[in-house]
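Translate sequence into structure tokens.
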Amino acid sequence: MKKSSAVLSDVGQLENAPSAFIKTKLLHDAISASADIALIIDESGKVVEVVHSDETVIPLNLAGWVGRTWSETVTVESKPKLTQLLDDAKSNSQQRWRQVNHPMPDGPDLPVRYIGVPMEFGGLTLVIGREMQSVSHLQQDLVKTQQAMEREYTRLRHAETKYRALFQVTTEPVLVLDAGTYRVVDANPAAIKTLDLTAGQLVGRYLRDWVSSEDQGPITDLFSSVRRTGNQMSEVVRFKSIEEYECQVNVSLFRQGSNAHLLVRIETNASEIDSESGTSTGNLSEVVSRMPDGFVTTDLDGRIRHANASFLDLAQLPTPRAAEGESLGRWVGRSEYEITTLVSSLMENGTASRFLTIIRGELGTVEEIEVSAVAIPDNRSPCLGFSIRSIESRVDLAPSISTLPGGQSPEDLSNLIGRVSLKEIVREATDVIERMTIQAALEHTGNNRALASEMLGLSRQSLYVKLHRYGINDTTKKLGQKSTSD
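Result follows.
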């Protein structure tokens, strides 16, 4: 045990020395066996004695500590811990280890754990310390390892996101099977649509359960061969859900960690069958896309799946992607309830013809349109189809009684509902009734305007203004009615 201060050694001095120092001398050996460093602190917090067994373990200048306040040897944030440690020792309360840091001339601070033990003489406190540098290094290594794992996890998560995005958006039907059990692990939307099944019917089930009975043996042999050789192979089979089509199943093997999976790609000959029946899907799609009238297909909730160029012009949209997935009611109809009502009518009746409404462009324009629609709810991919035609050349943006059918009599005002506001309908209806009343009064009085004004409770001047407003004077002249002198 190496001491950093002089120790009383000869017998004569020991006999005359105070008993406290004699006991301190006797404790040196015991302390060295249980601690890396030991200190004796007096009541004022100064270091009386310092001993340590190995300078390489705690490379500090301990000789300079004797006579100094202990708190001067630690970093700023550690000083309150020393005060608490000494206070606990003096009060004989339960002791606990406290970690403090000693500043080093070069490199990081040196961490040491201390615990205080009160001594029975002189108000001294024995402090035992154990170096924590090795533990600190382990903790730092642990933090670095954890950060590396988190970075790797983030990289794998990004890769998984890219794979998932590609898997979902690809138009090729793809299934992922467990190579050991041949159960479906995952299926993309294209595969679910092509096989006319749901995700619940596919995922977790044996794929051979959906293959026609005569093809179950060949497809099982195909999976086994791919698993054994690792080579890509294919087989033509029929699925129970779409027995009218022959499908070519292409199978390849891939590994994900310690697990092996089969990648199954499905190709159908649906396009060939369509060609044989005289229908060209590609030509039909081209015709629809070039139609001068707007054409939109939606799901059963009215959300757009496809829109041709004419609809994009009417809605003032830059690309088809700007419309896909959006509700048709965002652009068509005076309110969303109008499209909701139209969709409900389609689901009930199957078709709708020449429905008059408006389309609102993204840049603020409004056009009158005529909508015809059809519902196909029982198809493999149920949808609604809307044909949209602009009628701006026939009807003004702000329709009135004089320009709309039904503006000539009160009975036909119902035709204006949904095309103009209630305020406009009431104003126009008032004008119709007022004009007809004036005409009836003139006929009743033989076109005597003085009597007609008295019957109507109007002044002559007011009657003249209304006659001019409604053009009744011109009408009566055309009818050959003789005007009566006022």
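Note: The mean pLDDT is 78.
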